[in-house]
């Protein structure tokens, strides 16, 4: 939530409210899905841990779109079931990076390095070159101006990965300055001059409360010294009014506000609701 306030400006008082969104159909209750927004205002949601009424959880690989008409399931199959992946939109395509397939309970599952492109107009998935350096999960990505997608993983202490959406080629970009420590389950957002990274869990399991900005003109990290929230991982949005506490949800810009779907309240409930978060100046 601190990143949201940063993006909207810290000198203006803000008023926020939640409102439920109803749709004829909508994604099942789930957590750990990936989501992104496109320039036409649609929100796409992929995969995650689906939970039925009996509490049984299944990893899914369905793709959903939310727009003015509500939710529509647009595809199944393709990349395969997973959660904790990263999703970005560039032009008329979606790009899915890595993730985790738990597979059979007790095996630990598989951390994935595959990359997939989804042609929105054609409704077709295409396999791309895998993530360099090995499998990645609990990572983040951001679409940058110019058509690159920046991918930040637990290996990004001295460099970041850039994926060219047009050529499907990867390159490693060296960085300088005080970078975030090796971590996962952090959050990131693109801003005018770069990318802001906040929070996550480091290799020891400790929750991080620090924030950084990477300037893409010089590829230099800078630590943001503002006092913020307590250390946390898997953040997306903080409850402001009457929405239930949860984690592993998705948050995307939509219609001038933000769209929230699903999430998990540990060992209590997996949510299947869709909510709109409207933020305005008071």
Automatic annotation (TrEMBL):
Signal peptide: which range, if any?
1-16
Keyword Transmembrane included in the entry's annotation? no
Keywords noted in UniProt: Kelch repeat, Repeat, Signal
The record's listing under InterPro entries reads: Kelch-typ_b-propeller
Top-level taxon of origin: Eukaryota
Name this protein carries in UniProt: Diazepam binding inhibitor, acyl-CoA binding protein
Q: Which organism is it from?
A: Aureococcus anophagefferens
């Amino acid at each position: 939530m601190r990143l949201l306030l940063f993006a909207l400006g810290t000198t203006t008082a803000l008023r926020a409210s939640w409102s439920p969104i109803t749709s004829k159909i909508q994604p099942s209750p789930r957590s750990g899905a990936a989501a992104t927004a496109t320039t036409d205002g649609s929100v796409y949601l992929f995969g995650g841990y689906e939970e039925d009424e009996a509490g049984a959880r299944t990893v899914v690989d369905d793709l959903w779109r939310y727009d003015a008409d509500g939710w529509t399931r647009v595809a199944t199959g393709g990349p395969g079931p997973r959660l904790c992946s990263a999703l970005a939109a560039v032009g008329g395509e979606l790009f899915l990076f890595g993730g985790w397939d738990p597979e059979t309970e007790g095996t630990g599952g598989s951390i994935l390095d595959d990359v997939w492109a989804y042609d929105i107009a054609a409704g077709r998935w295409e396999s791309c070159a895998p993530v360099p350096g090995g499998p990645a999960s609990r990572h983040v990505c951001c679409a940058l101006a110019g058509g690159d997608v920046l991918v930040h993983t637990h290996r990004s202490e001295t460099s970041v990965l850039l994926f060219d959406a047009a050529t499907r080629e990867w390159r490693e970009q060296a960085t300088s300055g005080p970078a975030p420590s090796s971590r996962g389950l952090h959050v990131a957002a693109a801003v005018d001059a770069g990318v802001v990274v906040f929070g996550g869990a480091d290799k020891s399991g400790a929750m991080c409360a620090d924030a950084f900005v990477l300037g893409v003109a010089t590829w230099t990290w800078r630590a943001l010294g503002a006092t913020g929230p307590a250390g946390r991982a898997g953040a997306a949005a903080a409850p402001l009014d009457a929405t239930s506490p949860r984690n592993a949800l998705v948050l995307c810009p939509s219609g001038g506000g933000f769209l929230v779907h699903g999430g998990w309240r540990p060992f209590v409930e997996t949510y299947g609701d869709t909510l709109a978060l409207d933020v305005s100046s008071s």
